[in-house]
Amino acid sequence: MLYKILDKNHHKEFLSNLVANVKMVGPKKKDDSCHDFTSIKDVDEIDTAYQKTTIPPAKKILFPSTENLVRFRLGETIESEGLLESSETVLFGINAWDIAGMNFLDRFFSTDFADENYIAKRKALTVIGIDTEPTETNFAHYMDSEYVIEGFDLYFTDLGDRFFVRIATAKGNALLDRFAHIKDIEENDLKDFNKYMNVYRKKFKLEINMKNFLDNFENIYDKKGVWEELAEKCYSCGSCNLVCPTCFCFNVKDDINLDLKTGQKMREWDSCMIPEYGLVAGEHNFRPSKENRLKQRYRCKLITYKEKYGKNSCVGCGRCIEACLAKINIAEDINAIKKEVNV
Ligand code: SF4
Ligand code: SF4
């Protein structure tokens, strides 16, 4: 990792150069409550001072909510052609926990099977991260996601009069060489950066306790009443899945055109919290109850991938807490599970 300094008075010039020369996606104010990552045509559209998490998360750039995978033509034989869409894009202004979310998806979509569509988009993406202020529902610090060391090309930290820039790849370095006036760091820059990180970590007010979570979870896995109580108010709406930066479930279906001869095989986001998710032929449902679905969701987020990749698939962004009309709160539930075992 290389460290450099970009003075604040050169920052806008850097962004203007990017907007003028590359395809860029960045955070733009959508309404009073949230921002969205959209195409940036004018540097003044970029608003990195977002606190409310962007919904849907930036994962939509790599894993769109609907995506055509194969085009086909029906005849005496079936002709088919794989569809792969990707173009060089700079994603600017994504924060650490959303980069951690993309890092999880990178592992998921390249381990066991390689998802060509996802991988092509990821290879064409240059990622420039920045720190943003955590909301009151954010517990990223407790999921080791408030600071990332991979998954980006450049990462900007605001030190007041200057940005501390972490350069993780040759691609990021080339972008700075081409478009920015940067300086070498001095000793006080590194000290200021460390000081900044100590203050930044204290801004994550929602504390959770993941110590011994796996054992605690296993202890109450079949305990009567616990899951019924946690899931009591759940509407099975699936919003928590749709806003999550690490949810990866999708459905694949055939979309036939009006000529009844051509069509496309497409995928769309799915949700493990809706009753139809576990429904198979013969009307059998593997997860008919909402308490069972919630238990499975927490297991997936907090245990399954910790065991498989050594990292939780929950990055603590807090979006599902904000999106849930029933006020089901994964952070409170993590602490409640611990309490349940200790009682
Ligand atoms: S958003 Fe809330 S109510 Fe909807 S499925 Fe998720 S936990 Fe249940
Ligand atoms: S489970 Fe909730 S808090 Fe965790 S990453 Fe997904 S949306 Fe964020």
Write down the secondary-structure element order: EHEEEEEHHEEEHEHHHHEEEEHHH
What oligomeric assembly is this protein in?
single chain
What is the overall shape?
globular
Detail the poorly predicted runs: none
What does the average pLDDT come to?
94
Estimated helix fraction: 25-40%
Gap between N and C termini, in Å?
Answer: 46 Å
Q: How would you characterize the overall build of this protein?
A:
This protein is of the alpha+beta class and 343 residues long. The protein folds into 2 domains: 2-70 and 83-201, no CATH class; 213-249 and 270-342, no CATH class. 33% of the residues lie in helices and 22% in strands. The chain contains 11 helices and 14 strands. It has helices at 11-21, 96-108, 116-123, 170-179, 187-201, 213-220, 226-231, 239-242, 290-309, 319-323, 330-342; strands spanning 2-7, 24-29, 35-39, 66-74, 78-82, 89-94, 125-130, 154-158, 162-167, 182-184, 250-256, 262-269, 279-280, 284-285. An 8-stranded mixed beta sheet has the order 3-2-6-7-8-9-1-10, with helices on both faces. Strands 5-4-12-11 form a 4-stranded antiparallel beta sheet, with no helix packed on it. A two-stranded antiparallel ribbon has the order 13-14. One iron/sulfur cluster is lined by residues 243-246, 301, 314-320, 330.
